[in-house]
Amino acid sequence: MASSAVAPTSSPFVKGEEFLHSSSLSSSFCNQRCRKITPKVVASVMAPPQTQRPPSTTGSVKNAMTMTEKILARASERSRLEPGENVWVNVDVLMTHDVCGPGTIGIFKREFGLDAKVWDREKIVIIPDHYIFTSDERANRNVDILRDFCMEQNIKYFYDIKDLSNFRVNPDYKGVCHVALAQEGHCRPGEVLLGTDSHTCNAGAFGQFATGIGNTDAGFVMGAGKLLLKVPPTLRFIMDGEMPNYLLAKDLILQIIGEISVAGATYRSMEFVGSTVESLNMEERMTLCNMVIEAGGKNGVVQADQTTFKYLEDKTPLSYEPVYSDEQARFLQEYRFNVSKLEPVVAKPHSPDNRALARECKDVKIDRVYIGSCTGGKTEDFMAAAKVFLASGKKVKVPTFLVPATQKVWMDVYSLPVPGSGDKTCSQIFEEAGCDTPASPSCGACLGGPRDTYARMNEPQVCVSTTNRNFHGRMGHKEGQIYLASPYTAAASALTGFVTDPREFLQ
Q: Are 176 and 97 in contact (CB under 8 A)?
């Protein structure tokens, strides 16, 4: 097995509370209690000098805390926190979109008054992205409600779209909220970001506490700027080893979810560390954190480092202050992976934890491939798919749909040269491979949507997808079968018409 467990110690996590026991875990994982963690390859990276840190993050460590505990302690103006405590947390950013925004606005007006003003017009980010390019009147009306509210409240960050016939004539429109939040500088280390979407945990890649909340909670935050949260205990995932050229972060998170199950991190923070994680670019780190919710996680988090700071250089004028887990911090459980020994994996229908090696599914005939979503529609995801198509020199054997997450990603697909291609762009390589023309940026068919949504599964087909969920009906038809995979595996499968290990084309 490619992972090993750390031997347990006798030190309890919380006095009088027994630790999680799970006989369903792989035999390579031993149940364990919290212990003092001293990763052999992980080193804290100090942020550029900024303001002085509050007591919870500096000085001699009297009460060691994890990153998540520190962020929530700062946001609740507490010097220390322990898992299980309920605290009022001051929110730095609230995000909502066209699916949940109207409901959130309705609750805000009902509870705070029809003439009430939001707590901070510059800390609310509203991003239409889910059901955009459709003729469905109700979906279009949702965006109208957002627009009216943002005008009424003078919301600073509303990424509007008015002309659905050509997204490029809408300069404010971005696309998928989670990727847009990062690209527009709303993801900052040490802050609290809440959003009315379960994949808001995506922003944890920036060393930020980010999690999804419901419309009722969001309506309260919209008016009060704070929320009562329970401090989650932390699971730590240490991933070391050189990343093979046929693996992507999607393989890593599917491996983890397959190990611990879709309930294995229920209301837990998932902290990712190790030499492998340090080597990942920001978009790959986003993929890791994006899918912690598929394991039941409250939030995912990666410590900020020079990679983070460089990404943020031209994106936000606001100062930020990263925090890092103390060496003596208490973790509920720790998992170790030797990434160099892992293989490409997929999640078979109909659960993200139904893990199998891609090569074990080589006889599964497919009808289509979908590359897109907050999980798999970023620039690096399309670069990865193009790399496979370029290496093969072949044409796809099944319809292959491409949906860039944002306007910026769409532009990258058409402008950035793919390494080793002789200056060809992704779009040129996709065209030569016979893929569909890259679509307008949005969530597309990831959540199914109205029947006229681009690439929606309106028939009971088999699809290899870079999205995040493969439940019954997730991408449309209730009898559709979705195999979750990395962009490498998705592209390789498009070339053969079967679920395919990308090592067939990447040597």
A: no
CA distances from 389 to 402, 428, 434, 489, 494 (A): 13, 11, 10, 11, 9
Strand partners, 235: 270, 333
* β-strand partners of 97: 127
pTM (predicted TM-score): 0.88
412 φ, ψ (degrees, to nearest 5) = -65, -40
Q: Which token pair is 180?
A: 């847009």
- Specify the DSSP class assigned to residue 366: -
Q: Per-residue pLDDT tens for 388-436?
A: 999 999 999 999 999 999 999 999 999 999 999 999 999 999 999 999 9
pLDDT tens digit sequence for 87-100: 999 999 999 999 99
102/107 Cα distance (integer angstroms): 9
Distances (CA, A) of 412 to 194, 409, 416: 28, 5, 5
Length of the chain: 507
Pairing assessment for the beta strands 3-5 and 157-158 based on DSSP bridges = unpaired
Take residue 447 and report the two structure tokens written for it: 């959540």
Report the first-to-last Cα separation within the chain, whole angstroms: 22
Could you tell me which residues come within 8 angstroms of residue 464 by beta carbon, excluding any fewer than 6 positions away?
A: 346, 366, 368, 369, 370, 482, 483, 485, 489, 490, 493, 494, 499
